[in-house]
Design goal:
Elements: E1 9-23, E2 35-36, E3 38-39, E4 42-52, E5 60-71, E6 74-84, H1 87-97, E7 101-103, E8 105-109, E9 114-120, E10 123-135, E11 140-150, E12 153-173, E13 190-201
Parallel strand pairs: 6-7
Antiparallel strand pairs: 1-4, 1-13, 2-5, 3-4, 4-5, 5-6, 8-9, 9-10, 10-12, 11-12, 12-13
Length: 213
């Protein structure tokens, strides 16, 4: 089994994100006990390409889909499908947090914006193109929690990030037979670029308490 860093993972790079409103009945299966956060019967589903580079503890590419869920009234994110091109990332994601990572091959170009495709074996997963529209001033902090099923129990992990945010126009294509469950038959509600992000995923190991003699 490939070795991987302990949590938290400190990562940096580029993210290309699209969001869709999805009828609750059309969502992928969620872990037991996890409920989508809905408004008028619709949940929010996202998909992202992520390039972990620069000072990341691991360097790799990733494509994923996720659903906005809730723990009581507290919002959470659950990752439903995800592929990476790093065996250590796949092993760490599965064993540390219950993230269902699989392996894929990626083809990425940033010549005229962002164009990418991913394939697992002989099966094409998806392609996408992002074209920048405008950038927002400053660097934006974001904090949220990811909830996954790990060893039969829900595990919730903190995520903290900061990045330059831009609006983009994006197109996604999911070929027939792709295991990526995404409503890409219609344009995204919103697409964003998160450039030069820094991100911390997970919690440090608890410090052993001192023994009283």
């Amino acid at each position: 089994m490939p070795t991987y860093p302990p949590e938290p993972w400190h990562l940096a790079g580029q993210m290309y994100l699209s969001l869709w409103p999805v009828p609750r009945r059309a969502l992928p299966p969620l872990p037991p006990g996890v409920r989508p956060l809905t408004l008028a019967g619709r949940a929010l589903m996202g998909a992202a390409w992520v390039l972990y580079e620069n000072d990341s503890v691991l360097r790799y590419n990733e494509v994923l889909s996720a659903v906005l869920v809730r723990d009581g009234l507290r919002p959470r994110v659950t990752i439903t499908d995800i592929w990476v091109d790093s065996p250590p990332s796949m092993a760490g994601g599965r064993e540390l947090w219950g993230i269902p990572k699989e392996l894929a091959a990626f083809d990425v170009s940033r010549d005229k914006g962002f164009d990418a495709s991913a394939r697992t074996g002989s099966t094409a997963l998806c392609t996408a193109s992002f074209r920048p529209l405008t950038s927002l001033p400053g660097r934006w902090p974001v904090a949220y929690r990811v909830t996954q099923l790990l060893d039969g129990h829900l595990k919730t992990s903190p995520v903290r990030s900061r990045s330059t945010v831009g609006l983009a126009r994006a197109t996604w294509q999911i070929p027939p037979g792709s295991p990526l469950r995404l409503p890409a038959d219609r344009p995204p509600l919103l697409s964003l670029t998160l450039h030069d992000f820094t991100l911390s995923f997970g919690s440090p190991a608890p410090t052993p308490s001192a023994r009283t003699v």
